[in-house]
Design a protein that fits this description.
The complex is a heterodimer. In chain A, 18% of the residues lie in helices and 25% in strands. By secondary structure, chain A is an alpha+beta fold. In chain A, a hairpin with a 2-residue loop joins β3 and β4. The radius of gyration of chain A is 12 Å and the shape is globular. Chain B has 2 domains: 3-80 and 118-218, Rossmann fold; 89-115 and 222-394, Rossmann fold (3-Layer(aba) Sandwich), CATH 3.40.50.1100. Chain B has helices at residues 42-50, 93-99, 118-131, 144-156, 170-177, 190-203, 215-220, 223-232, 249-264, 284-291, 316-325, 335-349, 355-369, 407-413; strands spanning 3-8, 14-15, 30-34, 89-91, 103-108, 137-140, 160-165, 182-186, 208-209, 240-244, 273-279, 329-333, 378-383. The longest helix of chain B is centred in the middle third of the chain and has 16 residues, at 249-264. Chain B is globular. The termini of chain B are far apart. Classes of the chains: A alpha+beta, B alpha/beta.
Chain lengths: 92, 425
């Protein structure tokens, strides 16, 4: 299933400047693997040594934080949009 | 000035002092690093601070500008903008009596120009943005920040964009819109607004989002709360501080301020015991504290304390670490406790706070009720915003009495004894 992944500015040097990348995958984990396959440099920036997401990386499927879904096992529908963003901003 | 570079809090990678906020290597947050080696004469430094402006720029040595503070003396940024800080530290004897404590102080940041502590962080972020040549200010806001950004932009003549959740208190929307900003109400909660703005900041790199690409500079502004508290306590540190937590930025930066002054010898002692306060309707950091975790599982906020309604707190891990290493706690209180906290503060100090101050007051009360605080300790309660911002929270909280304009009507309706605000033991 083809999905599009939106790449944040801080990671675009690792994708040759591309802001949106289309890859195949049925879960978030598969999508990220496909992404790392194409842009090897992304792996260590997004994932820690155990393959989990680094703690300041947020991933959204159709605008919803995957920590409210099934984490890396969250299924992704054909044509879904996945967004990777740093955890920032905030109020008090 | 002493700001030297940006440094990743996670992996230590260094960056120049530009509009950067996230480490390209590990995605960790960036923080301003200083070289304070020239500040070795503490007596002279104290005198300079005491002779300084009565606003955040009094502490310019500890803030991240490359030139002097904004104002007529600064050719690059001659407009001073909205002044912020130097708010009262009030000795709260009656509140202390009600809680069985002898040395309670209230740091009343509702006394800022737009009635919340956000004027501090915006003063710093906007000044740095102007130094860097930005011509538009923007923010993702739960309300207070929007007030402060819109006002600051108006005062320095810059266009601004304020993004807020559409369900925000009307008072906060009105008090932002009046400044002539572009107010954008987003259908979603704060975390949705934040996600949108993080994406937007990537597409509009000529906008200074004060709490996104200006975040390292913005966050530094909260340190001025610590500096003022120390100076107002006659160059001493309190034993404990009770502070609100939403993203965890203020909580951690207040402690950082105390640490910087301890390192330089401007004050003696140790970092105070830090207590973080959240609403139980949005308590990802308190939950993690209780569970012994070092990261926060995000939550969907549902609380009257909307200025603290951040379900995905960026500085959560650092807030947890700070509470633990100072022997403090991170606590959550219910909406009813928050309303009681607002009333307790109002009726013992004369200070009317918004819901976030109800949260900190309720947490102080819970700590006192549990006997965790020695009655002789010096405790500072942070009040970060004004009660007029969250009127809905206290609607119906007092007894109404309407009479005809006659003596008879008054006598018939009013008990012989006037009501005492709040009797304390």
């Amino acid at each position: 299933m083809a999905v599009s992944v939106k790449i944040p500015v801080a990671l675009r040097p690792a994708t040759g400047g591309e802001s949106e990348v289309r890859v195949e995958g049925a879960t978030v984990a598969e999508v990220l693997d496909a992404l790392f396959e194409r842009f090897g440099e992304l792996r260590e920036r997004i994932s820690d040594e155990q393959g989990a997401l680094r703690r300041f990386v947020n991933v959204y499927v159709a605008g919803e934080d995957i920590r409210f879904l099934e984490g890396l096992d969250t299924p992704v529908a054909d044509g879904a949009e996945i967004t990777i963003l740093p955890a920032v901003a905030g109020g008090v | 000035m002493a700001a030297e570079k940006l440094k990743c809090k996670e992996c230590g990678t260094e960056y120049p002092l530009e509009a950067l906020y996230v480490c390209g290597r590990c995605f960790g947050p960036l923080e301003v690093a200083y070289d304070h080696s020239t500040l070795d004469d503490t007596a002279a430094l104290r005198r300079r601070i005491q002779a300084g402006r009565e606003d955040v720029w009094r502490y310019a040595d500890f803030l991240p500008l490359s030139g002097p503070p904004p104002g007529p003396g600064n050719r690059a940024i001659p407009l001073a903008g909205v002044s912020a800080g130097w708010t009262p530290l009030v000795r709260a004897e009656r509140l202390g009596e009600a809680l069985g404590l002898r040395n309670v102080y209230v740091k009343n940041d509702a006394a800022n120009p737009t009635h919340s502590f956000k004027d501090r962080v915006v003063a710093v972020a906007a000044a740095r943005a102007r130094e860097l040549g930005f011509a538009t200010l923007a923010c993702a806001s739960t309300g207070n920040l929007g007030n402060a950004v819109a006002a600051q932009a108006a005062a320095v003549g810059l266009p601004s964009f304020v993004f807020v959740p559409a369900d925000l208190e009307e008072q906060k929307l009105l008090a932002t819109g009046i400044y002539g900003t572009s107010l954008v109400e987003v259908r979603g909660n704060y975390d949705d607004v934040n996600r949108l703005c993080t994406e937007l900041s990537g597409e509009h790199d000529d906008w200074a989002f004060v709490n996104i690409n200006m975040r390292p500079y913005y966050a530094e502004g909260s340190k001025t709360l610590a500096f003022e508290i120390a100076e107002q306590l006659d160059w001493a540190l309190p034993d404990r501080v009770v502070a609100p937590i939403a993203s965890g930025s203020l909580f951690t930066k207040v402690a950082r301020g105390f640490e910087e002054w301890l390192t330089l010898g401007l004050v003696a002692g140790a970092v105070p015991v830090m207590h973080g306060a959240q609403a139980s309707g949005c308590s990802p950091v308190a939950n993690a504290f209780e569970a012994g975790a070092d990261f926060c599982q995000p939550v969907k906020p549902d609380t009257i304390a909307k200025s603290l309604a951040i379900g995905n707190p960026a500085d959560g891990p650092y807030a947890l670490d700070l509470a633990r290493r100072t022997g403090g706690t991170i606590e959550a209180v219910t909406d009813d406790q928050i309303r009681d906290g607002i009333a307790l503060l109002a009726q013992t100090t004369g200070i009317f706070t918004e819901t976030a101050g109800g949260v900190t007051t309720a947490v102080l009360k819970a700590l006192a009720d549990r006997g965790e605080i020695d009655p002789e300790e010096t405790v500072v309660l942070l009040i970060t915003g004004d009660g007029l911002k969250t009127l809905d929270a206290v609607r119906g909280s007092y007894e109404r009495r309407e009479i005809d304009p006659t003596l008879e009507s008054f006598e018939a309706s009013t008990p012989a004894e006037p009501r005492i605000a709040r009797a304390v033991a």
